Amino acid sequence: MQAKIENNELVIRIPLEKPHVSSSGKTLIVASTGGNVQIDAEVNGKPVFVGLNAYIKK
Fold this sequence. Notes:
Number of domains: 1
Largest sheet: 3 strands, antiparallel
Strand order of the largest sheet: 3-4-7
Mean pLDDT: 96
Distance between the termini: 25 Å
Helix content: under 10%
Order of helices and strands: EEEEEEE
Structural class: mainly beta
Number of strands: 7
Low-confidence stretches: none
């Protein structure tokens, strides 16, 4: 995943994966950070964390 702050917007690029069943079994995950991850960006001198799940309905 790539994430950066550009023109006061958070820009995220993450590769799409082959759809796979979520842990709840209700959706198919197509992209995920696998939890919260720190990115190379700061706001007010503090690190930014991102947690992302992109999914489709089964």
